[in-house]
Amino acid sequence: MTARTPDLSVVIPAFNEERRLAHTLPQVFSYLAARGLRGEVIVVDDGSTDATAEVVRQFAAQYPELRLLSNPGNRGKGYSVRAGMLAATGRLALFTDADLSAPIEEADKLLAALADYDIAIGSRALDRSLIQQHQPWWRERAGIAFNWATRLLSGLPFQDTQCGFKAFRREPTRILFEQQRIERFGFDPEILFLALRHGLRVVEIPVRWAHHPDSRVHVFRDGLRMVGDLLRIRVHAALGRYPRTERGPRF
User: Fold this and answer.
1) What CATH number is given for 8-238 in this structure?
2) How far is residue 144 from each of residues 162, 174, 231, measured CA to CA in Å?
């Protein structure tokens, strides 16, 4: 590790997030400064049609540790996270949603866990008393049903695969993003499936979380797509598209 290696890379996938980023970026940099972390922040613009890219460029004049990546059109959250994680240079890497539904300070919990684990994933399901703003009941029930379907179809043991707040020891987990194939919302179970397949250590940690009313996830349309993605994960594995490493598989 060189002296210039960041302690933490923060990856933020963004599609039409000009308003949110104006509040989110100062919060993230304040967090890094308060913790004394040498950090970099990577915003991945997923073909936005608003001023997302311009907002990032303006903030980059103030924060030289801020980087902008631009996708070739709208490719999806999974594509954006993969691009950001593969571009990251930090010893640790975390991806978070642009709305900071999980406050950035909750990263303390995930980063502390990386002393013993390769991956720490935020969870809304382990302690629902930490949910500060609930989704509408029908969205919440749909989310619970999807997590049940995820465990059933993928065999994953986690209660909440979809929370957009996950941290990684970057070097041992890079292979996950190199092998990732799913580009939209179903990428989270794929990453976790790959992690267990490669013998990586994963821990699920309850985090504070607040629902934002203008969530971009369409419950039923995207839910059906994600179920399809779960089936594709099994197909990819059966066809040998996820070559195992020497660490030893669990899946």
Assistant:
1) 3.90.550.10
2) 10, 29, 18
